[in-house]
Design a protein that fits this description.
By secondary structure, the protein is an alpha/beta fold. The protein is built from 15 helices and 8 strands. Strands 1, 2, 3, 4, 5, 6, 7 and 8 form an 8-stranded mixed sheet that branches. Strand 5 (371-379) and strand 6 form a beta hairpin.
């Protein structure tokens, strides 16, 4: 699949295209929490939803959402940091700030113990809020006796995100028939499908080498070493400055997911260093998911999700019964899915890692509880189905011509994405019989 280019969109009078916006240092300094990358908490949507053309009513919502705010996914960061600082303390190498940082780390680790990746209370609230706005925005749809079909990845944080979303909808509209499931049966499209052959790229190895150097440049750890240790020469015998800065950056970012702890490690970074960490992981995710020009296109593993969206949308369009389809999964799916769809926020990538963050920013795409919604509208007596695309509940554009933005004609949308799947020539790995 070639890189998308934004298509000229024919606009109705008075409407304008919701264009992608660059990310500036000033924006990040004004909202430093955005620099927490994929740890960023769910942003408040604009609240502006363009009403459909006269006579059109919503009848189907097609959705994929990332789980809400979570604990850090592995305790390796805590084990390394607490272990190294504990050792330094016994060697009398910690500064007063180092002593205090160790105390805070132990408090955070005690709370996170055996909760690797679990949903936090904030994560539950995020999904309830998203569900509440969905119910408020489409009361005519939700007030009917319709089926809400929801399923999630088998990971606990996704299951609980689904449960909180559905509980909120049920509390608002008790007549809803809600079906929830979390099974290996559906994991082939809810997470990256590792059975799909990913085309190779000659530049992939080179890009990973560049990324490794870039990350060590962005998170060099010199400042953190000087803040925490009174003898950095001796401390370097025990501590890798890059790993120190990298792990501290992650722990500090995750504190945004746990506001009730009232802990922060931001005093161990300048604002520019926090932004540098964002730049490092902004580039990492872009390369990991194959979105960077020249990268191995890992996003092929997400094509089954697109097919599932299309198949279930086709069934909903052919049915006389309105319905809701909810899916709950991970950032490693949501990010490449936005790219495959050609959403305007996701397609302006570059292999220039120094400047990538100016045109591609994770906080616009995969904050905690990030989501994509396709909202379908029909008009009695007409077979022209309209669909609107929402990125984190904000109207967005796709690379298809339309005469009624932010709405697109479903026949054009389906043709575009079905053609994309056909042209991808998806193949599956051969199953090797190990018994032979």
């Amino acid at each position: 699949m070639r890189r998308f280019r934004t298509t000229l969109v024919v606009l109705a009078a008075g409407l304008s295209l919701a264009a992608w916006s660059q990310t500036s240092r000033q924006e990040l300094l004004a909202h430093i929490e955005l620099a927490s990358s994929n740890y960023c908490n769910y942003p408040q949507p604009t609240g502006h939803l363009t009403p459909p053309p006269p006579g059109y009513e919503p009848f189907f919502i097609n959705h994929y959402g990332r789980h809400g705010a979570r604990y850090i996914t592995s305790d390796k960061q805590y084990k390394y940091l607490v272990g190294k600082l504990d050792t330094a303390q016994t060697m009398r190498l910690l500064t007063p700030l180092g002593e205090d940082a160790l105390r805070r780390l132990k408090v955070a680790y005690a709370d996170a113990y055996q909760r690797d990746g679990d949903l936090t209370r904030l994560g539950a609230r995020q999904h309830r809020a998203i569900a509440h706005r969905m119910g408020v925005n489409y009361p005519g749809l939700f007030s009917q006796r319709i089926t809400v079909n929801a399923n999630s990845s088998t990971v606990r944080r996704c299951i609980l995100s689904m449960a909180n979303c559905c509980l909120e909808l049920k509390s608002m509209y008790p007549q809803l028939d809600i079906e929830m499931d979390a099974s290996e049966h559906d994991m082939y499209y809810l997470i990256p499908n590792d059975s799909i052959e990913i085309p190779k790229s000659e530049r992939d190895g080179q890009l990973y080498d560049i990324l490794a150097d870039f990350k060590r440049k962005m998170l060099n750890g010199r400042h953190q070493m000087a803040l925490l240790f009174n003898d950095t020469v001796k401390a370097r015998q025990q501590v890798d400055p890059y790993i120190l800065a990298d792990y501290l950056w992650h722990v500090n970012a995750d504190m945004l997911c746990l506001p009730e702890l009232r802990l922060s490690f931001s005093d161990l970074f300048t604002e520019d260093e926090i932004i540098d960490g964002f730049r490092a992981y902004n580039a990492s995710w872009c390369l990991w998911e194959g979105l960077m020009p020249g990268a191995r296109p890992s996003y092929y593993a997400i094509y089954p999700l697109l097919r599932n969206f299309l198949d279930e949308a086709r069934a909903a369009v052919g049915s006389s019964q309105p319905s809701i389809r909810l899916r709950f999964g991970h950032d490693s799916v949501l990010l490449p899915f936005t790219f495959i769809l050609g959403l305007d926020e996701a397609i302006h990538t570059t292999d220039d890692m120094e400047n990538l963050h100016h045109t591609f920013s994770l906080f616009r795409l995969i904050p905690m509880a990030g989501n994509v919604q396709w909202v379908f509208f029909r008009k009695q007596g007409s077979d022209d189905i309209l669909v609107k695309f929402l990125m984190n509940e904000n109207e967005t554009s796709i690379p298809i011509t339309t005469d009624c933005y932010p709405f697109y004609h479903w026949r054009d949308v389906e043709t575009h994405y079905r053609t994309m799947l056909e042209n991808a020539h998806i193949t599956y790995k051969k199953i090797v019989d190990k018994k032979k």
